[in-house]
């Protein structure tokens, strides 16, 4: 299928890249259908809305930022999208890249869980004081390599 994207213009994507968030994402509850794209710069991904080309999010695997990350999403929330074992889940977090040059951050408090099989997703809010909405990606990775 062809999708208009914020980063790449019109591109052809495969059906397996399509992700549906039945409840939308926080602040974007009315947008349900997205495609997951590799970004030009690894280790990032784009989550591009199919419904509105101006809506796209940069994602990262949070375990690259914090190997000790625990996405303790409730079993009930995971069951909403058919996840009954950890192996079925892909976990991402949303990245913020400020225009003012301040540090690039990721939201470890609000992870996205995606069912590998059904391609349904959900955003959760974690009630763990270790995870904030703004973790400096470069500083977190540097702290890991310094150990």
Notes on the structure:
By secondary structure, the protein is α+β, with helices and mostly antiparallel strands. The protein has a single domain, classed as BH3618-like. Helix content is 14%, strand content 32%. It contains three helices and eleven strands. The protein has helices spanning 62-65, 75-80, 137-146; strands spanning 2-5, 9-12, 18-20, 33-38, 44-49, 56-60, 89-96, 105-106, 112-115, 121-123, 135-136. Strands 3, 4, 5, 6, 7, 8, 9, 10 and 11 form a nine-stranded antiparallel beta sheet that branches. A hairpin with a 3-residue loop joins strand 1 (2-5) and strand 2. The longest helix is centred in the C-terminal third of the chain and has 10 residues, at 137-146. The mean pLDDT is 94.
């Amino acid at each position: 299928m062809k999708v208009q994207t914020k980063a790449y213009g019109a591109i052809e994507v495969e059906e397996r890249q399509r992700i549906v968030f039945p409840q939308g994402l926080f602040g974007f509850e009315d947008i349900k259908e997205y495609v997951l794209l590799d970004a030009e710069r690894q280790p990032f991904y784009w989550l591009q809305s199919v419904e509105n080309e101006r809506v796209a999010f940069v994602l990262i695997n949070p375990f690259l930022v914090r190997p000790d990350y625990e996405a303790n999403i409730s079993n009930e929330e995971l069951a909403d999208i058919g996840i009954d074992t950890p192996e079925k889940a892909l976990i991402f977090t949303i990245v913020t890249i400020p225009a003012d040059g301040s540090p690039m951050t990721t939201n470890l408090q609000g992870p996205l869980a995606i069912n590998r099989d059904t391609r349904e997703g959900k955003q959760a809010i974690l009630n763990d004081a270790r995870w904030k909405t703004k973790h400096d990606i470069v500083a977190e990775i540097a702290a890991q390599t310094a150990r």
